[in-house]
Write a structure and sequence with these properties.
This protein is mainly alpha-helical. It has helices spanning 6-10, 15-34, 38-53, 67-75, 81-98, 100-105, 121-156, 171-200, 229-232, 246-249, and strands at 55-57, 64-66, 220-221, 224-225. A hairpin with a 2-residue loop joins strand 3 (220-221) and strand 4 (224-225).
Length: 266
C-alpha cells in the first residue's frame, strides 16, 4: 500500500500483529482441512437419497425392493438409512464447527446491520472491539466450559444413538464441537489483537486485516470484493440503453433541444 510506515516496510510489525498472524495460521490449517468434510456430507446424502428412491416392485408379491436395502444386505449395515442419516448430520456438524473461525479471519460471516456500513473506519474498529471483547470471545468460552462437562459425561457413559441401529461413541462429535469453538476463540483473539493495534497503535501502520478494511482500500461485502460493472465488464451505466426494436435502431435520435439529429453519412 502507498501509506506504510518504517516498521511495516522493514517487516518489524508490532508484537500483537505478529501474534495475530500466527494465530490466523492455526485457524487456516484447521479450516482448510475441515472444509473437506463437505465431500462425505455430499456423498453420504446422495447415497441415502438415491438408495431410498431407486427400486422396483415385485409383480407377484407386490413387495417393493429398494437399492438401499440391497446395499445394506450385501455390503453391510453401514448403508442402513438410520446410520446414513446420522452420519449426514455428524459430518455436517463437524464441517460447521471447524470452519467457524475460518469465517472470522476471512470476514465471510453474514453481517445483518443498518448502522455499521455507514460508520467511519475508527468507529467500525470500536464496534469490532466491543463485539469481540464482550460478546464473541466470552460467549464461546462459556459454551466451551459447559460443553467439556457435557462431552466428558457422554464419554463416561459411552453414549450412543437413541436408535438401536444408530451410531455409537456420541462423545466424538461432541468433542469436535469443542475443537471448533476453541478455533473460533483463537480467531476472535487474532481479530481482537488487530483491532487493538488499530485503535491504540501507530496511525499510519498497515497490515492485512481480517474483519475490517483500511479506509483507503475498496470496501468489501462480507469479505468479497465489490464488482465494478464499468471496469470489470466494460459496461457504462451512464449511457442510454440501446433500442431493442429493429425498426427504431436506425431512427435518428433527438438532440437536447428536441431537434432530430441527422443520420450518419453512408
Amino acid at each position: 500500500m502507498k501509506s506504510e510506515n518504517v516498521e511495516a516496510q522493514s517487516g518489524e510489525l508490532p508484537a500483537a500483529v505478529r501474534v495475530a498472524a500466527r494465530l490466523r495460521r492455526i485457524v487456516d490449517v484447521v479450516g482448510a482441512w475441515g472444509c473437506w468434510l463437505i465431500v462425505p456430507v455430499v456423498v453420504i446424502t446422495c447415497i441415502d437419497v438415491i438408495g431410498r428412491k431407486i427400486g422396483y416392485e415385485d409383480e407377484e408379491t407386490g413387495r417393493i425392493y429398494r437399492l438401499q436395502g440391497w446395499l445394506a444386505d450385501n455390503l453391510g449395515s453401514f448403508f442402513q438409512s438410520t446410520i446414513l442419516q446420522e452420519l449426514e448430520w455428524h459430518f455436517h456438524a463437524g464441517l460447521f464447527a471447524l470452519v467457524l473461525g475460518y469465517g472470522v479471519v476471512y470476514n465471510t460471516h453474514v453481517r445483518i446491520d443498518l448502522i455499521r456500513d455507514s460508520l467511519d473506519f475508527r468507529k467500525k474498529a470500536w464496534l469490532e472491539f466491543f463485539g469481540l471483547t464482550f460478546f464473541m470471545i466470552p460467549y464461546c468460552a462459556i459454551v466451551i466450559y459447559f460443553a467439556f462437562d457435557y462431552t466428558y459425561a457422554s464419554y463416561m457413559i459411552n453414549e450412543s444413538s437413541n436408535s438401536t441401529v444408530g451410531l455409537t461413541h456420541r462423545w466424538i462429535i461432541k468433542s469436535v464441537f469443542i475443537v471448533g469453538l476453541l478455533v473460533a476463540v483463537i480467531s476472535g483473539i487474532a481479530a481482537w489483537l488487530q483491532v487493538v493495534t488499530i485503535l491504540w497503535g501507530p496511525k499510519d501502520l498497515r497490515f492485512p486485516l481480517m474483519t475490517l478494511d483500511w479506509p483507503e482500500a475498496d470496501a468489501k461485502i462480507e469479505g468479497k470484493e465489490r464488482v465494478r460493472l464499468e471496469d470489470d465488464y466494460g459496461l457504462r451505466l451512464s449511457d442510454s440503453p440501446l433500442p431493442t426494436d429493429p425498426a427504431l435502431a436506425g431512427a435518428p435520435s433527438q438532440g437536447k433541444d428536441g431537434a432530430k439529429a441527422a443520420p450518419p453519412p453512408a
